[in-house]
Amino acid sequence: MNYARRSLLAVAGAVSTVLLSRFALSAPAAAQAFPFTLTDAEWRKRLSPQAYDVLRKGATEWPYSSPLNKEHRQGTFFCGGCALPLFNSKTKFESGTGWPSFYAPAPNAVLTRPDHSLGMVRTEVLCRRCGGHLGHVFDDGPRPTGKRYCMNGVAMTFKPG
Fold first, then answer.
1. 141 near 148, Cβ under 8 Å?
2. What is the pLDDT of residue 13?
3. Catalytic residues, which ones?
């Protein structure tokens, strides 16, 4: 599929996903036990409202809204909920989808599970330590893995180095 068509389809899908995700969020991460846990009140105090909606309720940020899209320095992307290192900047690539994309997570950083929300089957990506919703992984990424970890920028922080 050529780049222009892929980009157009990605944007159309992204807008639909964001609009629908406001009404049909993924199952909350709290349904599973994770090593790092807080009460709902503690999560709300710790996170911005948008980060709370994404990390704890499975929402999706608007495409092209994250400053992390333009982050190209060497460094590490961390979970915005518990600060676990998630992705090395060397694995980041420009997917044209509007979200920070990576071809591989850091070792032992994420978990995946089936996501049947929005009337489709996708693979949700969660932080291994706190269970925060990070985004989804798809099989249309670059070499060497062929994966595209399409992450919500608001769910992560970046530290250069």
1. yes
2. 52
3. 150
* DSSP type of residue 122: E
Concatenate the DSSP letters of all residues of 136-153 into one string: EEES---TTT--EEEE-G
CATH number at residue 88: 2.170.150.20
Strand runs labelled E in the chain: 75-79, 85-88, 92-93, 101-102, 110-115, 122-127, 133-138, 148-151, 156-160
- Number of structural domains in the chain: 1
| pTM of the predicted protein model | 0.82
pLDDT exceeds 70 at position 21: no
Give the lowest-confidence range in 16-20, 47-51, 66-70, 74-78: 16-20
Q: Write out the residue range of the structural domain in which residue 95 sits.
A: 3-160
Contacts of 125 (CB under 8 A, 6+ apart): 105, 110, 111, 112, 133, 134, 135, 136, 137, 149, 151
